[in-house]
Design goal:
Blueprint: E1 6-7, H1 18-24, H2 40-59, E2 67-70, H3 73-90, E3 97-101, H4 106-114, E4 121-125, H5 135-141, E5 146-150, H6 164-174, E6 177-181, H7 193-196, E7 200-204, E8 215-219, H8 247-263, H9 268-283, E9 289-290, E10 301-305, H10 311-318, E11 322-323, H11 339-343, H12 348-352, E12 354-358, H13 365-385
Parallel strand pairs: 1-11, 3-4, 3-5, 5-6, 6-7
Antiparallel strand pairs: 2-8, 7-8, 9-10, 10-12
Helix pairs in contact: 1-8, 2-8, 3-4, 9-13, 10-13
Length: 387
């Protein structure tokens, strides 16, 4: 029997895995120690943090010393962008330009814009209709005065996977640093920070069945510039991120990383679910258009548009039966709709009738078929009521 509520909004968040909850449980009460306390309890917590750090590092092929725990990818992105800018100013570098793709997460775009108040220039790299960065445009923008280029590994609305190795090579040719927001990619597809050539990478636990409120920042030991802190206190994480470590969340992050590593070699089940969903829509008389690349996208990720409907209206009518979204959760309620889809060249009308959909490992084919039936029924109802 199909579940009562089906969520296909896994780009926004994933449910915490039972194994993760179990791993965290002792550190809430039985061993609620501060990892920096000098007593035996502190040593227990410190060992748990070290083990989790190793698991997260292994997932992205990093050294544990290169992984800094943060409250999430948003904080990690801010530390990377703002921290590198502070470091560049401290060293009086002549690099004052920051390049970001047009479809970066809001925290990247806003951090880069904020730096315009401090003498930096923020410039946008356009993307192709596929949702991938325009490499020819990047070539035109790159020069020896670029400090950092920020390109996400995979987009949080259309699932488009970026050609990071090509981007990294171009950055290296001009001595520019490369920051990668990998929140959507890490744990869903293989991601090797060292092999790609990233200088900094942000990751998030709750995008891969871990707890909310914990993430990480990879800072390459070989990067030509190390970010400076943007917050101050005890300097617990390599002097870069202060604050008492959230041991239970870190333990959960580590367990989620281990689980993700075990599944990375087989994501075909996610694509099968997406195919079953599309087949179910077709059986109900709907043939949506796919936004973005058909091939270079995250497994189980779809961004679909349907003619003659208002996607926000459909989402509201679905209520608690089926959870979908029309864009990133961080821009929910914005009247202009998805800036990601608009950057890819979609019209306002096309944007208004588009949904983002993402399947997870705990979905079944029955879920996919039931979701298709619910969505189709609601769309038909909306079209009929609109005349």
């Amino acid at each position: 029997m199909a579940r009562v509520m089906i969520s296909l909004d896994y780009h926004a968040t994933t449910p915490t895995a039972p194994e993760v909850i179990e791993a965290m449980a002792p550190y809430w009460r039985e061993a609620p120690w501060n990892a920096h306390s000098p007593h035996a309890g502190g040593a227990v917590a410190e060992a748990a943090v070290a083990s989790a750090r190793l698991s997260v590092a292994n997932l992205i092929d990093a050294d544990p010393a290169e992984v800094i725990f943060t409250s999430g990818a948003t904080e990690a992105n801010n530390i990377a962008i703002l921290g590198l800018a502070i470091a560049a100013q401290r060293k009086a570098l002549s690099r004052t330009r920051i390049l970001t793709s047009a479809i970066e997460h809001k925290c990247i775009l806003e951090a880069a814009r904020h730096l315009e108040n401090s003498g930096f220039k923020h410039e946008i790299i356009p993307v192709l209709p596929s949702g991938q960065v325009d490499l020819a445009a990047l070539d035109r923008l790159l020069s020896d005065d670029v400090l950092v280029v920020a390109i996400m590994a995979a987009n949080n609305e259309v699932g488009s996977i970026q050609p990071l190795k090509e981007v990294a090579r171009r950055c290296a040719d001009h001595g520019a640093l490369l920051h990668v927001d990998a929140a959507q990619a890490v744990g869903r597809i293989p991601f090797n920070a060292t092999e790609v050539g990233c200088d900094t990478v942000s990751i998030s636990a709750h995008k891969m069945y871990g707890p909310k409120g914990i993430g990480g920042l990879f800072v390459s030991a070989t990067a030509s510039l190390q970010p400076e802190p943007v917050m101050f206190g005890g300097g617990q994480e390599r002097g870069l991120r202060p604050g008492t470590l959230a041991v239970p969340l870190i333990v959960g992050f580590g367990r989620a990383a281990t689980l993700a590593a075990d599944r990375l070699n087989d994501t075909s089940d996610l694509d099968r679910l997406a195919a079953a969903f599309l087949a179910g829509l077709e059986e109900e008389g709907l043939t949506p258009k796919l936004n973005g690349s058909r091939d270079h996208r995250l497994p189980g990720s779809l961004n679909l548009r349907f003619a003659n409907i208002n996607a926000d209206d459909v989402v509201q009518r679905l209520g608690h039966r089926l959870h979908l979204s029309t864009g990133s959760a961080c821009q929910s309620g914005e009247l202009q709709g998805s800036y990601v889809l608009r950057a890819m060249g979609l019209s306002s009308v096309d944007v208004s009738c588009s949904f983002r959909i993402c399947f997870g490992h705990d979905h079944s084919e029955l879920d996919a078929r039931q979701a298709a039936k619910l969505l189709a029924g609601t769309i038909h109802s909306c079209q009929n009521s609109a005349g």
